[in-house]
Design goal:
The protein is an alpha+beta fold. It contains 17 helices and 20 strands. Helix 15 packs across helix 16.
Length: about 900
């Protein structure tokens, strides 16, 4: 399908439903130019970008779109609807997947359905579909070039859209330049490069016939050198055989291993004598250990007997104390019974007097209750009005406090985990081993790990800390192996990693950068809670038990007022009641009588309490007396046992005997051990091992030399009949012939290589002229970011090098060597230049940037905003971001992703 000249494309509305988190659907409206859609992480920005890509690149019958399905919704039909404008025509694309597979496209009066609609869409927007399976990057065409996925801004692949870019450049640069750069030049250069490729690789290395000829030369040289080496080795072998034969005859005459065998026999006899002496010392040590154990047991037995006598005395004293306590408790119990009877009689008299006074005061209280009820009714009505005002103020403060999420416990937990990280770091430094070397020499000592890798250098006067096994290597070959002590370093490292991960997880969960920010948020929350507490306190003062209770109190006051009035009316006037008696019941008299009743009841309760306490004390004292009596009897019985004295006497005699035997054996053993150490059994064992190894070495060496001399003699006899000199002459002739052939092919390869370079230079000049329009558009954006900078394109229309005069004397920087953020900036302005070129060719240029420029620093971000704003004057740009604070100065409203999504 042909494209309208300079067609203007603009996406007006995007609607999705049953797609990932958008189960109920969401609709966004877009304006021409720049559109910024913001929302927090996982709000659905990337899901919307994925929905647009699926609407274009995925077939509606595809089974490779399971990622669009909402979680655990097997019946969902993810649907995407896009309303757009193309020139003067309005268009609609609606596509459904999975449960309800459908695709419909309309543009003005024209309509398409199913696969036909998808093919028409691909023709309009300049992309293609995979013949089978899911969409792949090589099919994405113009949209894939202009749409930046989340986290992929540092990558750019022109290959899927190179044909479209080439068509746009060819129309702008002219037919002659296009033909020279793309067809005629390519054919000629291709033929020359093909001939060159028969002899040379792309890096200039030999291949094909040239490689084979050079290989033949090299093979002939190797064979010739090998023959020369064989001749030299034959002469050397003759000399070596002569020397070895003379040494063999000398060893057979001297027989040095016989003298070593005599020394070995003497050393083995000495070692056997020392082993027998050591066995006797071990037996004496075992007997000494038995005597020491017996002595300890006898001493423990005598100490136990002394403790038993002391325990009997203590228990007798305890029995006397318990008897005195029991007698005292019985006296207190008798004294506490008399006050109980007196207090009961006084309490009965006080209660009777109080009842009489209350009957006289009832009439006076009814009138007073009526007056008080009226006053309470009025007061409760006023308090209810004030409490309603305080309740409204409390609701405002509660809303403000709820907006602050951080609590004191969160801050304290965060501080504790930060302190734990710092403590583990200090602990790791503390358990490491500190080494320091002082020397007048300037040479440093190398430090190597157990696996052989280098851990650093130890210079004189500069301390080092080791947290793992290491070896110090001095220049003279000396070694010092160090194993750090202290805590388990591997376990400490694991604990440190766990503590650091927990601390970072809390920072991420609380959405704060550090503890200082958390402290600031807690201060704000504390202030809000303080204001909320004041509002709560004000409401509590007015309505201590709540609004409902206050309203109930007001109603109760009304009811009480009516009841008091009815009761007062029922009693009649005061003069009509018992006029012959002066009424009692004033407040002072009632208080006096009530105090008298309370005092009488308190005295009665106190007397009963004292009686109960005395009874409990008497029971406890009696129980303690019985227990002490039983324990004292048992202790006296144990002391009076007839066999106890005899056992103690035997133990004392046995202890004296064992002590004398132990001291004598210990002295004899110490003398024997000293003699054994003086004989140095370790040195004797080393002598046995040294002499045995020496004998074995001499015998083995003599046998090996005999066998080697015989083998060398047989080899020399065989080599003398090979005719090595004749073989060398034949190989020299073969090498000369191969060398002439290789020289001819090298001259041909050099000529083709030079011709290929010259043709490539001419073709590059043609490409530069063809790429000039794109270079100008790219330079327009680059100057907004880096004034005076230049960027070069390769033959595939990819940016290749960045030249900034302000850096390192105008160094040309390869784009792959730039930082992540710088590459993202370069590839974004390159996409904008492609869009300018394609728009002039009448192709759609919708730009979608998902979380772009998040790695751009604060210094370059304003320049990139100028670039985006300038590009939005010619193209529609959809920018999705989770950082709304970055884009508030772009001159367009930020469209918040609906929270209902």
């Amino acid at each position: 399908m042909s494209h309208p000249a300079l067609a203007q494309f603009a996406l007006r509305r995007l609607s999705v439903s049953q797609l990932r988190q958008f189960r109920q659907g969401v609709t966004l409206a877009f304006a021409p130019g720049l559109n910024v859609v913001v929302g927090p992480n996982e709000a659905g920005k990337s899901s919307l970008a994925r929905a647009i890509r699926a609407a274009f690149f995925e077939r509606h019958r595809s089974t490779q779109v399971e990622d669009l399905r909402p979680w655990q919704d097997g019946s969902a039909a993810p649907t995407v609807r896009m309303e757009f404008e193309w020139g003067d025509d309005a268009g609609v694309l609606e596509k459904s997947f999975l449960a309800r597979k459908r695709c419909a496209l309309s543009l003005g009066p024209r309509q398409w359905e199913g696969v036909e609609a998808e093919d028409q869409l691909a023709t309009l927007f300049g992309f293609s579909y995979a013949a089978k399976g899911a969409s792949r990057p090589e099919h994405t065409g113009i949209p894939g070039l202009l749409w930046m996925e989340q986290g992929q801004g540092h990558l750019l692949d022109v290959a899927p859209a190179r044909e479209h870019l080439h068509d746009a450049l060819a129309g702008d640069a002219g037919t002659a330049w296009s033909a020279l750069a793309a067809s005629g030049g390519d054919d000629l250069l291709g033929r020359v490069q093909a001939l060159r490729a028969e002899l040379l690789t792309g890096t200039g290395k030999a291949r094909g016939a040239l490689a084979e000829a050079l290989s033949q030369v090299q093979e002939a040289e190797v064979k010739l050198a090998d023959t020369d080496a064989q001749l030299a080795r034959y002469a050397q072998a003759v000399d070596q055989w002569t020397r070895e034969r003379d040494l063999l005859w000398q060893e057979q005459a001297e027989r040095p291993w016989e003298a070593l065998r005599a020394q070995l026999a003497q050393a083995q006899a000495e070692q056997a004598a020392l082993a027998a002496h050591e066995q006797r010392c071990a037996e004496d040590q075992a007997r000494l250990d038995v005597l020491a154990q017996t002595r300890r047991l006898l001493r423990d037995q005598l100490q136990a007997a002394d403790s038993q006598a002391q325990d009997a005395e203590w228990r007798q004293a305890t029995l006397q104390q318990a008897a005195s306590a029991l007698q005292e408790a019985e006296l207190r119990l008798r004294d506490a019974q008399a006050p109980v009877l007196a207090s009961k009689r006084a309490a009965v008299a006080a209660r009777e007097a109080l009842q009489a006074a209350r009957r006289q005061a009832q009439r006076q209280q009814s009138r007073l209750r009526h007056e008080q009820a009226a006053a309470r009714c009025q007061a409760s009505e006023q308090a209810l009005g004030q409490a309603r005002k305080a309740q409204a103020e409390l609701a405002v403060r509660q809303a403000e406090a709820a907006a602050l999420r951080l609590s004191e416990s969160d801050l304290e937990a965060l501080r504790q985990k930060e302190s734990a990280c710092l403590a583990l770091e200090a602990q790791g430094r503390a358990v490491a081993t500190r080494i320091e070397w002082h020397s007048s020499q300037t040479t440093a000592v190398a430090i190597t790990r157990v696996d052989g890798s280098t851990a650093g250098l130890l210079a004189s006067g500069e301390p080092q800390w080791l947290d793992a096994e290491a070896t110090l290597l001095w220049p003279d070959g000396s070694r010092l192996h160090i194993t750090p002590g202290g805590a388990d370093l591997a376990q400490w490292a694991a604990h440190q990693a766990q503590a650091l991960a927990a601390f970072r997880a809390d920072l991420e969960r609380l959405q704060v950068a550090d503890v200082a920010e958390a402290h600031r948020l807690v201060q704000q929350a504390r202030q809000a809670r303080s204001e909320l507490a004041l509002a709560q306190q004000a409401l509590k003062l007015l309505a201590p038990r709540g609004m409902e209770a206050l309203q109930a109190e007001h109603q109760a006051a009304l009811d009480e007022l009516l009841a008091a009035q009815a009761a007062l009316e029922a009693l009649g006037p005061l003069e009509a009641v018992e006029g012959s008696r002066e009424p009692l019941g004033d407040a002072a008299e009632l208080d006096t009588l009530e105090q008298a009743v309370a005092q009488a009841q308190s005295a009665e309760a106190e007397a009963l309490s004292q009686q109960a306490m005395a009874q409990q004390a008497q029971v406890r004292a009696h129980s303690q007396y019985q227990q002490a009596q039983q324990e004292a009897q048992l202790a006296q019985a144990a002391l009076a046992a007839p066999e106890r004295a005899e056992a103690l006497s035997q133990a004392r005699s046995k202890l004296l005997e064992v002590t004398q035997h132990h001291e004598a054996l210990a002295a004899r053993l110490a003398q024997a051990q000293a003699q054994h150490r003086a004989a140095r059994p370790d040195i004797v064992a080393q002598d046995v091992r040294r002499l045995s190894q020496s004998i074995a070495q001499w015998v083995s060496q003599h046998q090996q030399r005999r066998e080697a001399v015989a083998a060398q003699h047989a080899t020399l006899v065989a080599s003398s009949a090979l005719g090595l000199q004749e073989q060398r002459d034949a190989l020299a002739s073969q090498w000369a012939q191969a060398d002439r052939r290789a020289s001819e092919l090298q001259r041909r390869a050099q000529a083709l290589d030079l011709l290929s370079q010259r043709l490539a230079q001419k073709r590059q000049a043609s490409l530069s002229a063809l790429q000039a329009p794109l270079q100008r558009k790219l330079q327009r954006y680059l100057e907004l970011l880096f004034p005076l900078a230049e960027i070069s394109l390769d033959e595939h229309l990819m940016p290749r090098q960045l030249h900034r005069p302000s850096r390192a004397a105008g160094l040309h920087e390869e784009l792959p060597a730039l930082s992540f953020g710088a590459r993202e900036q370069m590839f974004l302005i390159t996409r904008l230049a492609y869009a300018d070129l394609l728009k002039e060719a009448g192709r759609p240029t919708l730009l979608i940037l998902d979380d772009a420029l998040v790695h751009t620093d604060a210094e370059r971000l304003p320049a990139m905003k100028r670039v985006l704003f300038d590009a939005a004057q010619r193209h529609q740009v959809l920018l999705f971001s989770c950082h709304p604070e970055m884009w508030r100065d772009l001159g367009v409203p930020l469209q918040q992703l609906p929270t209902s999504a």
